[in-house]
Specification:
Radius of gyration: 15 Å
Distance between the termini: 41 Å
Order of helices and strands: EHEEEEEEH
CATH superfamily: START domain
CATH topology: Alpha-D-Glucose-1,6-Bisphosphate, Chain A, domain 4
Strand order of the largest sheet: 1-7-6-5-4-3-2
Number of helices: 2
Length: 154
Amino acid sequence: MTPRRIVSTTTVPRPLATTWEFFSRPENLEKLTPPKVKFEFLTPVAGVEMYEGIVIQYRITPFPGFTTDWVTEITHIRHHAHFIDDQRVGPFALWHHQHHFRAIDDHTTEMRDILHYQAPLGILGTIADKLFVHRQVQQIFTDREEAITRLFPV
């Protein structure tokens, strides 16, 4: 299977510095994840600011009956511009997620995600991706946009 690419752009009604401060703190990932995923940190992250090389382990239930551990590493950071997380252990054969931030004006930030992922298990993964995985991965961005609207009201 060829890796899939998803691009998502979200407007955050906050200045770039405020938006960066929120998204550069791993503990806030839980606030962006819907309760049905049962997101649980296995690495202590409270009060930790992201840095290149940080490895974060968590447990998720992406769909009922399937719980998995996931380990990601922040591989690149350019303060107030972007950061990249790569899966080290987890449910995907490939997970490379770029988070880009750009000030639109003094009060608004554009957040652009570029995700490359690949389902595991060869042809079985390709079939699963077509049946439900791709839809679930896209749902991550829909859920996150709803969370941003709730967390950062206009």
